[in-house]
Design brief:
About 40% of the residues lie in helices and about 15% in strands.
Length: about 180
Amino acid sequence: MVRKTRLTGLALAGALAGGLVTGCSSDDASLTYQTDYSNHQPLRVVGYPSTGSLETVQKAVWRLADGDADGLAALAVDDAHADATARNWVKAFGAAAKGDVTADFYDEGSVRQVVVLYFAKSGQTKEIEARIGEDDSWGLTLAEPDPAKATAKPTWAPPKPGGSGSRTSGTPSED
């Protein structure tokens, strides 16, 4: 019985040490991203996002789904209207973001990308812009403090993802 207790103690010490080593080798941003990724619906993607635009849009959809206006505002490249816009977006799209969302990426994505979000649960669409900010990191343009503008459906976007120019570079042309 003493041996069994000793093995259990050694196993516990090994697991604890392994957890400490793992915790020390992982940075907070990576751990947060991994946790967010596992706690949310997968984002469906159409088009050609860059790594930065994809990560930013994915975080935006997660913040919407979580009802986290402060977290969404933190993704802004310009703080002028970020808080009001984030609150508008969470109110308008938060519930729908908990379901299936498809992000349709336009443009080539080296410094900015227009993205249309399609919310399957509500049938809503939302045009957003991901771009590189002054600090050289990706963020969102959050410049819609007027609720009507924040919830306006994009007039140029196809009714379904992938319906036009997202599969090629450049904004779709009017047919």
